[in-house]
Structure prediction request, 136 residues.
Amino acid sequence: MLHVAALTLLAVLNAPTHSDEQIPYDAAYRKAQEEKKPLVVLVGADWCAACKSMKAETIHTMKGAGDFKEVVFTHVDKDSQPEIAQQVMQGNTLPQIVVFCESDQGWKRFSLTGMQSERRVKELIRKASEVLPKRR
Prediction:
């Protein structure tokens, strides 16, 4: 009995936290619409050193700090999801961080290309969030 309790406790402690969860693009898009939040998409590839660095450093740090509480975040791999990447990206440079916000006039797109700092990503999200209709 103690063995089962110990295994259960280990499973809970090692379970991914909310900030580590990866939401597929389609589900993230629907969630952003339902919750009226900006959709933040990191487009990258496994072979891209800057993509790996940005995901491991900038994005991971921002998630840990709670900087994505008011957005829906997802990652798109350009090689395994080429159709989605083509729709989201402008140009071929990786990584790209793209923010979509639904305004009163429809969806707006904001983006940064190349390796970005936390400050730049936060500025992009803030700028994109300014087009959101004011909540009542």
Remarks:
- Residues 1-19 have pLDDT under 50 and may be disordered.
- Residues 49-64 form the longest helix (16 residues).
- The beta strands are 39-44, 72-77, 96-103, 106-113.
- DSSP finds five helices and four strands in the chain.
